[in-house]
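Our consortium's second objective concerns turning raw sequence data into structural hypotheses that experimental partners can test. To show how far this objective has progressed, the report includes one record in full. It was chosen at random from the queue rather than selected for favorable results. The single chain below, 224 residues long, was entered without modification.
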Amino acid sequence: MRSPTGAVAASEPTSSRRVAAPAPGGRRLPPAVRKPLVALHLVASVSWLALMLCLLTLAVTALTTGDADRLRTAYRAMGLLGDALILPLSLLTFLSGVALGLGTSWGLFRYYWVSTKFWLTLGAMTASVLALTGRLHDAVRVADAHPTGPITVADLGFVRYNTVIVPAVALTLYLFNVILSVYKPWGRRKAHARSASPDTVGAEAKGEAEAIDTRPARIPGAGD
């Protein structure tokens, strides 16, 4: 409607519109992509953890048993599981975690706990693919070299300890990563904290965008 000064008053909507603020960091995976990716990451991570637990159980069985047939069975089962699952599970866990970090407000290096998880997962993946797989192959070779009869301690050498130590270390790293994911300690890295605005920091801490009121303002001097 026209005011006494001749200005046209802006029409005000009957109800204010509320629009979600942009995601912190300006990058967010859409729910249709993020949710399947989260599910994939969880399944791969739990499977990797379960694999290390199975390998450790078989290794302890082989270390403590006095039955040569049981020892051979344990080492061959470890070799089978390692060849089939170590590489795909470790890669899926690492790559899906990186994708989630890059596609959400957490980032990869904004928070101490996320960057710690990144380096621990990368180290665990490298150790599993290189060191652990090699130790499992050594154990299988010992079992194949003695298909029947007893296997002496001299025949086993340090293999019987390696097959316990490497999975135990890997399992410890994975469990520590789980603790980091649950408690999220240490807060934001200082370099990123200085460059972020207070609104961005608050929104990231909550994990969601704040709603803002976009009610259009009246033109100065406009009447009712």
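The partners drew two points from this record. The first helix runs from residue 31 to 64. The CA atoms of residues 44 and 89 lie 6 Å apart. Both points have been shared with the crystallography group to help prioritize constructs.
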